[in-house]
Write a structure and sequence with these properties.
The protein is α/β, with parallel strands linked by helices and 414 residues long. The chain has two domains: 35-179, Rossmann fold (3-Layer(aba) Sandwich), CATH 3.40.50; 182-357 and 364-414, Rossmann fold (3-Layer(aba) Sandwich), CATH 3.40.50. It has 14 helices and twelve strands. It has helices spanning 6-21, 25-31, 80-97, 117-131, 150-164, 188-204, 220-231, 254-263, 279-283, 322-330, 338-341, 344-358, 364-389, 393-412; strands at 36-45, 51-62, 68-75, 102-109, 140-144, 212-216, 235-241, 244-247, 275-277, 289-292, 311-313, 334-336. A seven-stranded mixed sheet has the order 9-8-7-6-10-11-12. It has a five-stranded mixed sheet with strand order 1-2-4-3-5. Helix 1 (6-21) runs parallel beside helix 3 (80-97), helix 6 (188-204) packs across helix 12 (344-358) and helix 12 (344-358) crosses helix 13. Bound molecules: nicotinamide-adenine-dinucleotide.
């Protein structure tokens, strides 16, 4: 999606599904707008004694089904348009697996690689002071996103609890386990994607050992997805990250690659392989399943026609543009949309919120069992909806989730 029209794309998708499910005009008008958007300016004392002011945002789209929920990203390109678009997608994502939240998203326009740890801590605490009145366990529950992590969540929950005068763990999720984080949260998005891969395989009669998979991105999502799929016997033939990629038709030993990159600190292209591939040609490999798990907008109208995979599982947010969607559908490629495929992360964040409120903590096995139940149910409902509406899986999934939100609005009489 082009940077400046991500929000417009989100609204176009809503209008497209609204026609399919015959949504009332007033509901479309309501869901095209946000409940609230906030811009904050945060002064931070830098290590050299000067003060810099950073701009941050929080967009709260719709809370008809429960408190707002969504991550916080730190990146130079963060702006209001981006967080507004991402918060709309969060509304649909929470509805897909049926977790009781609405959509939100936030962020700060900053390149965190240019800040020291102390500067990031002061910035993160400043952001929480600026938005404290608008978040809380029953209001809006932030979490990490691009370039934020459990340490940043720890500083944020500490700052929020100080403001409130009591420990408030259920206000922020994906915290460290020591501070009330959930077992299984780190790998939850990748694991959720593998549950989707399993269901897709059953539906399409794919046998894991003959199913060749290419994964773009080897960070949190891509590495856990690739490892867990590999451990289930799927054949991972290509993997890339920002430094390039590798292709091997015999299959890549993903555990060894994780050690190579994360323990031995070597770059991906130094790993034993049949040949190197760049990020562009990885997308065009003749594999069974293509898994974009890095960044948005990698499949566009310019390369959609060159995609040779039979299936796409969108683990990144927004990897396929709306124009490319039409081309992929014409080619008969089945794409499992991001709002379904990568919903494992927010689902385990929901489990964390439940555990924080109960003060009772689940085992990793319990977390994984509950996640599997919700992901399998969501996939099968989305597939049924796609079949009965005779549309593609993105619209089939949207039909389901947008209807849940619209029904909640209708029942509440908003
Ligand atoms: P990450 O920062 O841990 O990893 C990103 C990976 O992509 C890295 O391997 C990086 O080298 C690679 N990469 C970066 N730029 C690239 C480029 N231009 N070309 C190819 N590879 C590139 O991030 P993550 O948490 O794994 O998130 C990946 C995607 O999944 C994002 O779209 C994110 O919004 C989405 N997502 C993440 C979660 C989660 O729980 N982490 C949940 C839902 C969706």
């Amino acid at each position: 999606m082009e940077k400046n029209n991500a929000y417009q794309n989100a609204i176009e998708q809503l209008e497209k599904v609204a026609k399919i499910i015959k949504l009332k005009e007033s509901t479309v008008a309501r869901l095209s707008k946000h409940d609230r958007v906030l811009e904050v300016n945060i002064p931070v004392v830098m290590d050299d004694g000067t003060t810099k002011v950073f701009t941050g945002y929080r967009a709260q789209h719709c809370n008809a089904r429960g408190p707002y929920k969504g991550g916080l990203r730190y990146a130079p390109q963060v702006d209001l348009n981006e967080v507004k678009a991402l918060s709309v997608w969060m509304t649909w994502k929470c509805a897909v697996t049926g977790i009781p939240y609405g959509g939100a998203k936030g962020g700060i326009t900053v390149d965190p690689t240019k800040l020291s740890i102390g500067e990031i801590e002061r910035l993160s605490r400043g952001y929480i002071r600026a938005v404290a009145d608008l978040i809380g366990p029953d209001i809006d529950v932030p979490a990490p996103d691009m370039n934020t992590n459990s340490q940043i969540m720890a500083w944020m929950i500490d700052e929020y609890s100080k403001i409130k005068g009591s420990w408030q763990p259920a206000t922020i999720t994906a915290k460290p386990i020591e501070l009330g984080g959930s077992q299984g949260r780190t790998e939850a998005t990748g694991l959720g994607g593998v549950f989707i891969l399993n269901e897709l395989s059953k539906l399409q009669g794919l046998s894991p050992k003959d199913t060749e998979i290419a994964v773009q991105g080897f960070g949190n999502v891509g590495s856990h997805f690739a490892r867990l799929a590999y451990e289930k016997g799927f054949k991972i033939v290509a993997i890339s990250d920002i430094n390039g990629g590798i292709y091997d038709r015999k299959g890549i030993d993903v555990n060894k690659l994780i050690k190579h990159i994360y323990e031995d600190k070597k770059i991906i292209t130094e790993f034993a392989k049949e040949k190197e591939v760049d990020n562009k040609s990885l997308l065009e490999l003749p594999v069974s399943v293509l898994v974009p798990a890095a960044i948005e907008n990698v499949i566009t109208k310019d390369n959609a026609d060159s995609i040779n995979a039979k299936y796409i599982i969108e683990m990144a947010n927004g990897p396929v543009t709306p124009e490319a969607d039409y081309i992929l559908a014409d080619k008969g490629i089945l794409s499992v949309p991001d709002v379904l495929a990568n919903s494992g992360g927010v689902t385990v964040s929901y489990f964390e919120w439940v555990q924080n409120r109960q003060g009772y903590y689940w085992s990793k096995e319990e977390v994984e069992k509950q996640l599997q139940g919700l992901m399998v149910k969501a996939f099968n409902e989305a597939h049924q909806s796609t079949k009965s509406l005779g549309t593609d899986m993105r619209m089939g999934t949207y039909a389901l989730s947008v209807k849940k939100v619209a029904d909640a609005l209708e029942l509440r009489g908003i």
